[in-house]
Amino acid sequence: MALTTTTQDVVLLRTLPAELGYIQENPTKIKEDNQSCMALAKSMKVNARTKHIDVRYHFNREKIASREIELDYCPTEEMTADILTKNLPATLFCKHREGLGVRLASSNVTLRGCVGD
Question: What pTM, to 2 d.p., does this model score?
Answer without folding.
Answer: 0.68
